[in-house]
Design goal:
Length: about 450
Amino acid sequence: MTIATTNPATGETLKTFQPHSDQHLEQALDRAAKAFQTWRRTTFAERAARMQKAAALLEERKDSLARLITLEMGKLRKQGVAEIEKCANGCRYYAENAERHLADEVIATDAKRSLVKHQPVGAVLAVMPWNFPFWQVFRFAAPALMAGDVGLLKHASSVPQCALAIEEIFKNAGFPQGVFQTLLIGSDKVQKLIEDPRIVAATLTGSDGAGRSLGRAAGGQIKKTVLELGGSDPFVVLPSAKLEQAVKVAVAARIQNAGQSCIAAKRFIVHQQIAEEFEKRFVDAFKALKVGDPQDDATDVGPLASRQVLDDVDDQVRRSASKGARTACGGKRLEDRPGFFYAPTVLLNAENTAAFQEEVFGPVAAVTRAKDLDHAIALANDTQFGLGAAAFTNDSKEQERLADELEAGSVFINGMVKSDPRLPFGGIKASGYGRELSQVGIREFTNTKTVWIG
Ligand code: NAP
């Protein structure tokens, strides 16, 4: 895998990077281990001051950082700016709340005094994807550094400039040398890093294949992992829903980031009573989407991140059509321009096809009809994944059943699935394990230590 910046809007490779040498990695691991010994002893106030500074730098640099995101993975400029603002917000959240989330808990037992402490564990390796090249990293780094851990980032090979810009932010915010480092390496180096005693734990956000590989390597070393993997989120629409709102949110939930989001709604399960009307409005809305230059704020859907993603989406749509899905709109590459563009696509009657069974990472919606609520829930749960799930209904009994019975890490009723620093985020089944964000997230890479004093 070459480490390079390729502009997805033009297909042009603009810059390639020499991977870091083994000697460089050795030095980085040493720096991390050394930095941890000091960093773990800093106060929350000292860490928070730097994390607030990182938030301020993100705000200050948001236009240039968003340009970098657009350049390396094709995200719409306006969505890039929103991503950077979200990172700043995440930094502020943990600067303000880490101490409270990790405070000692005194528990009454037979001891004179017994308590639970949450202490940092050391250097954590973070293997990250390109689709939210800043947010995925900050979502890990803000809580980990506030907890007193140190981080080593192995970012996706397609976003090296983003990876280096993140390291620069932490450096400029005053985090001591070795507390956060970017490693420019391919995935072939990950196993060796996991085996190194200076790495104590790892987190991976990415495909389930990469997650399985990292999980195996870490399991062999008895090292803790958090895995945030793929999803094929259901989006259930029932008769009592406000249809106009449901359609609007359904479109936004599918095409965000050109469909390349783990929590994008991917399978639309619509009650038969309203299916015809939903499908008509949904397809009309997809046909009206403007595909084009990600720098142009009038654009709704930009390019896919790479030729590989484009090829995969095209293949999945073709296989789905050959198994009986009906292409209501789109269904093809946009070959009239350079770059990796795919037409926004709606596949009807898509149950039992690749679009329903696999994760499709592009602007492709798979729709099917459900006979009733039981059927809708069964269809929603009929997947290897379990990241998020959304449902639209104004019937409170249905809302409760959906909240209880949808098999996912998050269930959103009458809204699209999103991440929020105040709420835990993560999946079940092949979508991974462990949680990021909130109090649950910051405790993942800590030692929950029981202290008993007689
Ligand atoms: P990917 O190919 O799995 O890559 C993710 C990261 O893992 C990259 O840094 C990649 O490095 C590395 N990697 C790949 N194979 C590996 C292996 N065998 N061992 C160790 N590391 C390996 O995923 P992607 O295409 O970048 O991202 C899309 C996927 O991420 C989708 O499935 C999406 O749903 C998922 N995702 C999940 C979440 C979540 O929170 N659950 C959030 C965002 C994305 P290289 O780039 O060098 O190959």
